[in-house]
Amino acid sequence: MATRLTDRLAKVLPVPPSGNRITYDSDVAGYGLRVTANGNRSFILNYRRKADGIERRWTIGAFPDWSVGAARDEAKRLKRIIDGGGDPVGDIHKSRAGATVAELCARFEREVLPRNRPSTQLTYRQQIAAEVLPALGRRKVASVTYADIDALHRSISARAPTRANRIVSLLTRLFNLAVRWDIRVDNPCRGIERNTEHRRQRYLSADELARLSTALANLPDQAAANVVRLLLLTGARRGEALAARWSDFDLVAGVWSKPAASTKQNRPHRIPLSDAACRLLRQMQAEAGKGAYWLFPERGKPGHRSNIRAAWDTLRKAAGISDARVHDLRHTFASLIVSQGDGLPVIGALLGHTTPATTARYAHLLDDPLRKAVERAANVIAGRR
User: Fold this and answer.
1) Are 283 and 276 in contact (CB under 8 A)?
2) Contact yes or no for 99/105 (Cβ under 8 A)
3) Helix (H), strand (E) counts: the chain
4) Cβ neighbours of residue 267 under 8 Å, at least 6 residues apart?
5) What are the tens digits of pLDDT across the range 148-187?
6) Angle CA(196)–CA(197)–CA(203) in degrees, nearest 5?
7) pTM of the predicted structure, to 2 decimals
8) Sign of dihedral through CA atoms 333, 336, 366, 349?
């Protein structure tokens, strides 16, 4: 039953247990206040299009940002447009349908990306600029088809198969948002067959580690050398080390407490430090002096260092390990732990894995200590020491 809405009534209308409830105004047909189970209150206008009688609902605005009187006046204005053959909801749908992929990307970067880690933001921005915008930027979001996405995926696959998969993942996210934002009704990325990916299993041998140690000692950029040393001694990810703060370390207890903002799993990760790692950090701390904030501050700029790309290239050449990546230092740390006989749960805890499946890639490294164990057992059974 309609009743005359007032600001006082708008404040006290009860919250429904679920869904939403609309109280219609007695002065203007179709105008009302919607109250949701979350307690949100907004003014709406129901109307029928003159052309075909299809019913529409337009959201005027939220209460108390809009007063009852202001919303009522807006409802009257809209009804005059509708009586003249207008369709406010249809007009906004047409406007959204006309959005380009470049505009969709801009909204994604503006509204969604800030909730991601800085490294993720950088990756997405680079992928959008290098791959998405050149290929699809001028296209209307509503006009992009499965064939367009498939053609882009095949084009990138010819030069970088793994990157092609990452671009499709990004586009899937973008078009999911387009559906959520009512820009289109489906996702054209659905059904794209991804390229087969083989996880890289590269570990530095004892000889390679020795050559790398010599190269580290001779590297002019000793700050970058210390990044590499810390990665080898802790198994940390490069981003975790570069963003490390002195306040994250307790060198008396020998513990590194990584904040959620710096970890891939987006949750705090606490690991013990070896004596060698503590000695390295104490030496670095003495060189940094009192008041230092970042372990690896950016030279001449505020904030922490963002990469060691040039230094790593120099190290690889000097050590003769041209096919190794910085991330392989993390694999090497894990392989050394496993080779001592520690199980996969220990590796998972040290590396900060959230699922056992992630740690399982190191399972084959257990072969050597297990083989030694069965040999020891066989010797006992055979009566040998």
Assistant:
1) no
2) no
3) 17, 7
4) 260, 354
5) 999 999 999 999 999 999 999 999 999 999 999 888 889 9
6) 155
7) 0.53
8) negative
